């Protein structure tokens, strides 16, 4: 609920059109929100269960701001779980205290306590999102962030008539935290989700879901911008609308060269803005989301649907289903990602680092730990450079800022301990995976190239990696082993896509570049919650610069205690 004159009203989650911005002042403003973490009974698929929510809403409220605004979100925790919230994709310059990952930049907000996330929205505009960043609570604690351009700054594409937020998610019948606990105790992956959702609703292909169907009314001839977020925990998703093409114009709050596609691929953590023109014969058309999985692994392959309904068409007309790519359509995935390029215009240049100061090569793999009480006598874990990350008991940013010893080491290796045939036959022998809270130290303002290489340690699989505190350029990607001699010659250094979360293809590699101009401790992890929990994560310590405005800001007074 909004309180006070300068609080933005949050009574409507899915606001169509630009109504939300009419009341906003033209100059940079302070936007204040109150997020109450509370448990609420919610019914889906014929089952009711208590879920953790923000302000009793699922999905949570949309956070609206304009480029240049200051945003203050006061989070009060009324739930039994510790809580922290991450503003996914916001760069938080010098201000890691507002980034949100538990035990990385802060200790969590304990039951009965509050913390105000106070941050500036600088040099960013577009669609991002927020979510819980502790345990698996983001299963229900998530919502969109809409950042409008500065007043008088048009979109670099024809202005749509209306906008619509479309947040894709997952739903479990049972208590998600209990399911995870059970999986951990058995040393196995927890049960997969029971449904996918569009704006929290599974759609009519699921039981008891007639009233749990997202519908969007359109008028013939008008253009709509869909702000699409993948808030699923573990599934990359295809999304399409029957009979309608989509024009991709933005990913991860960065404008792209527009291109037309029948379907999009969106990984957990990613956002995509598309333009859809209501140019088909008036009727009812399904929009649908279903997983992409091209590794031999089980997945919740059920299709979530919503309805695109032309004005004046009765609900009795049966909608048509879109043709989604096959669940294992690797070719579509690779060609779709190849089509993503930065706009790279005079107003929105792609400042790709051409000279690299620091080259990093990280292997992504799985392993097993002995576990006498587990089902197979082992527990699955995941690693980068054969190191499975151990979460600390205190925020790493505090430990770094206050020079606390014994919390972490800065000896994360720049390359794997032993090179091997990364994507050859599956390696299942004793892999000797190490455990540790090991970080990589990066000099301020240095340019970094990181190659993420999938491996066949137990199995190959696609991994969406998210880097906090930064956007990066995706300069190259390929299938098989990265070739340090031949592959860099094929990099796109002119207009590569710029984003904050990137997929590493199954049995392949992805190369990213960024300039380390944001001091602090910045988490990098797989955005599949399953893999993050198994240790597929690490963090960078970016050192302070010499300038007065190049060091970490002091911590806020209400930073949660450990």
From TrEMBL:
Its cofactor is Cu cation. Pfam families: Cu-oxidase, Cu-oxidase_2, Cu-oxidase_3. Keywords: Apoplast, Copper, Glycoprotein, Lignin degradation, Metal-binding, Oxidoreductase, Repeat, Secreted. It is found in: Secreted, Extracellular space, Apoplast. It catalyses: 4 hydroquinone + O2 = 4 benzosemiquinone + 2 H2O. Residues 37-150, 165-312, 412-545 form the Plastocyanin-like domain. One of its GO terms (cellular component) is apoplast. It comes from the Eukaryota. CDD domains: CuRO_1_LCC_plant, CuRO_2_LCC_plant, CuRO_3_LCC_plant. One of its GO terms (molecular function) is hydroquinone:oxygen oxidoreductase activity. It is an enzyme of class 1 (oxidoreductase). Binds 4 Cu cations per monomer. Belongs to the multicopper oxidase family. PANTHER family: LACCASE, MULTI-COPPER OXIDASE. Lignin degradation and detoxification of lignin-derived products. This is Laccase. It comes from Hibiscus trionum (Flower of an hour).
């Amino acid at each position: 609920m909004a309180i006070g004159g300068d609080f933005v009203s949050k009574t409507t989650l899915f606001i169509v059109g630009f109504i939300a911005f009419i009341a906003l002042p033209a100059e940079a403003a302070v936007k204040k929100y109150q997020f109450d973490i509370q448990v609420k009974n919610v019914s889906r698929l014929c089952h009711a269960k208590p879920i953790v929510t923000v302000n009793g809403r699922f999905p949570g409220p949309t956070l609206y701001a304009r480029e240049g605004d200051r945003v203050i979100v006061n989070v009060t925790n009324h739930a039994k779980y510790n809580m922290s919230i991450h503003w996914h994709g916001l760069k938080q310059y010098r201000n890691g205290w507002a980034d949100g990952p538990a035990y990385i930049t802060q200790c969590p907000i304990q039951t009965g306590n509050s913390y105000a996330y106070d941050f500036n929205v600088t040099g960013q505009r577009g669609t991002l999102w927020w979510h819980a960043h502790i345990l698996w609570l983001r299963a229900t604690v998530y919502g969109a962030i809409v950042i409008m351009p500065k007043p008088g700054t048009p979109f670099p594409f024809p202005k749509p008539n209306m906008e619509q937020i479309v947040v894709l998610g997952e739903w479990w019948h049972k208590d998600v935290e209990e399911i995870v606990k059970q999986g951990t105790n058995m040393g196995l992956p927890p049960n997969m989700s029971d449904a996918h959702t569009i704006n929290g609703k599974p759609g009519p292909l699921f039981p008891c879901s007639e009233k749990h169907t997202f519908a969007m009314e359109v008028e013939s001839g008008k253009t709509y911008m869909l702000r699409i977020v993948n808030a699923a925990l573990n599934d990359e998703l295809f999304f399409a609308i029957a009979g309608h093409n989509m024009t991709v114009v933005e990913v991860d709050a960065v404008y792209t060269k527009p291109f037309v596609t029948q379907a999009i691929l969106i990984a957990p953590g990613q956002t995509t803005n598309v333009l859809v023109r209501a140019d088909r014969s008036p009727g009812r058309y399904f929009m649908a989301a279903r997983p992409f999985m091209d590794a031999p692994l089980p997945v919740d392959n059920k299709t979530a649907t919503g309805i695109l309904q032309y004005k004046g068409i009765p609900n009795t007309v049966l909608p048509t289903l879109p043709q989604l790519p096959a669940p294992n359509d690797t070719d579509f995935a690779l060609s779709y990602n190849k089509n993503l390029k930065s706009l790279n215009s005079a107003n929105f240049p792609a400042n790709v680092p051409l000279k690299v100061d620091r080259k990093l090569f990280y292997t992504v793999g799985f392993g097993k730990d002995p576990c006498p009480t587990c089902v197979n006598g082992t527990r699955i874990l995941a690693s980068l450079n054969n190191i499975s990350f151990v979460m600390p008991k205190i925020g790493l940013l505090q430990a770094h800022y206050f020079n606390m010893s014994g919390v972490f080491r800065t000896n994360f290796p720049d390359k794997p301990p032993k090179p091997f045939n990364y994507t050859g036959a599956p390696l299942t022998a004793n892999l000797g995976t190490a455990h540790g809270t090991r970080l990589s130290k990066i000099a301020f303002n240095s340019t970094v190239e990181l190659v993420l290489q999938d491996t066949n340690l137990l199995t190959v699989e696609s991994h969406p990696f998210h880097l906090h505190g930064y956007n990066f350029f995706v300069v190259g990607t390929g299938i098989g082993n990265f070739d340090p001699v031949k592959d860099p010659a094929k990099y796109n250094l002119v207009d590569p896509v710029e984003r904050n979360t990137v997929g590493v293809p199954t049995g392949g590699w992805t190369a990213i570049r960024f300039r380390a101009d944001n001091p602090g401790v910045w988490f990098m992890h797989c955005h599949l919650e399953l893999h993050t929990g198994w240790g597929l994560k690490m963090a960078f310590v970016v050192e302070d610069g010499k300038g007065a405005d190049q060091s970490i800001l002091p911590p806020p007074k209400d930073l949660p205690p450990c």
